[in-house]
Write a sequence for this structure.
């Protein structure tokens, strides 16, 4: 069976973009069990309240919910267990230092399949204040209004 090429997005963490400024992005592998991979392929994953942390020089993700695989049996794992992220040592140190020094946090942004492997895009993030969130919402609404006004004119080109 040939290996499928390309990238297929499975789930994204839209809340992270609402709550944080994303300063930098990294791609990481993730250590999973077989039934978890099957569940992810079906799109049964939730990143909403998840976050990443460093412990003993290794990166982990907590709060990522992967629903149990329907046809799985005793091999199903706990849906919200900690999972190890696979990054280079220098990337882990860079993220760890940014968290300690700048008060940033690390959040998973997206989970996707890349050439039949499960990858997680994580972001180094800084929290938004309430007025930043309001400002973003106002810009988004103004953009929508401009699009509606432009679409309603009916230019004939």
């Amino acid at each position: 069976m040939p290996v499928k090429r390309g990238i297929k997005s499975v789930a994204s963490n839209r809340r992270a973009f609402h709550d944080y400024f994303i300063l930098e992005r990294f791609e990481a592998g993730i250590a999973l069990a077989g039934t978890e991979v099957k569940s992810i392929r079906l799109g049964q994953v939730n990143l909403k309240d998840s976050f990443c942390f460093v412990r003993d020089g290794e990166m982990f993700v907590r709060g990522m919910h992967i629903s149990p695989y329907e046809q799985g049996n005793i091999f199903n794992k706990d849906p919200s267990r900690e999972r190890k992220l696979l990054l280079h040592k220098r990337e882990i140190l860079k993220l760890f230092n940014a968290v300690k020094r700048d008060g940033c946090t690390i959040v998973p942004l997206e989970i996707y399949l890349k050439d039949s492997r499960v990858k997680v895009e994580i972001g180094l993030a800084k929290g938004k204040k309430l007025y930043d969130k309001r400002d973003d919402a106002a810009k988004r609404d103004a953009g929508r209004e401009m699009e509606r006004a432009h679409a309603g004119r009916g230019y004939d080109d």
